[in-house]
Sequence to fold (175 residues):
Amino acid sequence: MKSLLNKFWKWYDKHTVLNTGIASLLFTLQLVHLYWLTTDVVIVKLTEKSLFNHGLRGGLFSILILIVDYIEIPAIIITSVLYLNELRKKFNARSLWFLFFINSQWLHMFWITDEFVLEHFFAHKGGTILPVWLAWIAILIDYLELPVIYDTIRKFLASLKKEGLLEAFQEFNEK
Fold:
């Protein structure tokens, strides 16, 4: 098993541009969800006015939000591997915090869902039996993606600068 892990980490390190690029792309797609959350949930709850383009509601945008929600699962896994690799090489608190931020999304996805937030914030008469602060925690958990998105893009650009895009794809195609 240890030999298999060593081979994986060797491959992972050899293809840094590709791996950080995939992680940053998948997590950057979460900005679509955060846009909706901010403009059609948070601002509405705080100001009773929506900044969301209601022409987007339903149809293609709803499908896009659904796809982005499902892409979050591989994004969490791939980005977790990125930070586990950093921790494997050398322990640092930043990578540990980002790993925590990323994996807090599991709690949000499987326990405090967007549906709960919407039901609690916008239910007529009573809402749910759960407290409103729990909905705000769910929203905060979603926003923990922002520093990870920034960091993965930064890492991708740094690895791209170091290795170069063409060299990265040539190495990947050779194997």
About this structure: Residues 40 and 152 are 26 Å apart (CA to CA). The longest helix spans residues 59-89. The chain has a mean pLDDT of 83.
